[in-house]
Amino acid sequence: MNNLIHSSPFKRGLQVALSLLLGVALLGSNAAYASGLCVHPTGAGHCYASIQAAVDAANDGDQIIIRQGKYVEQVTIVGKNLTLVGRRGAVIQAPETMADTLSPVAFVEGRPIILVAEAEVTIRDLVVDGANSAANNPFLYGIAFINADGLIRGNVVKNIGFGTPTIVYDEYGYESYQGEAMLVVNFGMTPRTVTITENYVVDYNASGVTIFAQAIQEDPTLGSLTAYVEKNTIVGAGPNDALGQWGIFFGGYESAQMTGSVKGNWIRNLITTSEYAMPGAGIATKDTTDAEISKNVIEHVNIGLSVSGWGTQVLENRFKKMDTGIMPLVQDCSYGTAFGAVLEDNKFEAVSMDVMTGLGPIMPGPLCEEEAAAKTMSETGSEPVQPKRLPR
Predict the structure, then answer these.
(1) Which domain range does residue 166 map to?
(2) pLDDT tens for residues 58-75?
(3) Structural domain includes residue 271
(4) CA separation (Å) from 67 to 114, 122, 156, 320, 354?
(5) CA atoms within a 13 Å half-sphere pointing along the CA-CB vector of 383
């Protein structure tokens, strides 16, 4: 069942599966290195003139060096293990009009600047610029990994949105929180591992980094995802009355095994000033398994950390200048519980409430009843099930 909806950071569903390996083989005392290709804006030096042309020509295990210059294009890598390395000044910019490259691999609309699916890929040292083109390009993403392994390191991802915080409404009248700098999803038949480290994310619309796994009903381990989100800097738009921005969302659906760490990140300037908009949040977890949230610095947000998951370790984080530091969720029909969470050695500075338990046991309401009905229809096959729409 394809449950993905564009209501960031609660993404759902997708359906593809394939896993490949990336590496350098050592043969005796001699190293066997991957072949190298290069990209130059003019094609100089026997290089390709576009990144996509180099990707299309590359073989598994190849490394592509992207030289200084601006490349106005979308890059799609499906089923091919590659390493993309940018030299200083290498910029990939969203075209004025972008193609929906997400639908062929995810069956939902989306326009990533860089899309990776069914592969193991490294992306390093690039500037990925959305050019604030979300008005012309619905469901704009900076970097998207769909059922993929890999490393996203040392990149700058910016201008993934409208220029100012903006809410778009879908055909059903629901708020569609579009404009995400990075999206990592696993819903397939193979466990995946992704590392996101040392990136700088700024000027996005809805979420800086969204990571989630969704299991298949028969075996929750198949859709598992291990993610290491470490040493990134994520900067929101600051006070606004339109949109509750999020720094990092890290979650699991349908009992998926979502684990890993969110460690050593600096997240700031996620403030909603309107009573009607949702609050800005530094980090939010949902139904994770033994995840570690540690040594992050979160400042100038509405809520520092919302915790849902089994055995979450919340250690040595610093919370500065906010309404609520840590909000462990107790029991909610949609969002889960922080059962077994450990909170130790966290520091709070200019925080109105250090720790506040949120969303206590609730009686069934419209949302719970809607989800129960959807589950019943899914099991009986009586009629198609519409995607769940979860609250921010």
Answers:
(1) 25-363
(2) 999 999 999 999 999 999
(3) yes
(4) 17, 16, 16, 40, 47
(5) 3
283 — phi, psi (to 5°)? -135, 135
Does the residue 18 lie in any domain? no
With H, G, I as helix, E, B as strand and everything else as coil, classify residue 366.
helix
Nearest residue to 188 (alpha-carbon basis) of 213, 151, 210, 152: 213
User: In this structure, is residue 13 part of a structural domain?
Assistant: no
Tokens of 305: 């950390």
Report the SS3 class of residue 147.
coil
Per residue in 322-378, pLDDT tens? 999 999 988 666 667 888 899 999 999 999 999 998 654 333 334 444 444 444 344
List pLDDT tens digits, range 112-127. 999 999 999 999 999 9
Residue type, 41: P
Q: Give the chain's residues under pLDDT 50.
A: 1-3, 5-33, 360-392
Give a yes or no: residue 216 inside a domain: yes
- CATH number assigned to the domain comprising residue 194: 2.160.20
Tokens encoding 240: 């606004």
Beta strand 62-66 with 36-39 is: parallel
Domain total in the chain: 1
Question: Alpha carbon of 202 to those of 16, 88, 235, 296: distances in Å?
Answer: 30, 19, 5, 17
3-state secondary structure of 271: coil
What is the residue whose two structure tokens read 């906010």?
322
> Any idea how long the chain is?
392
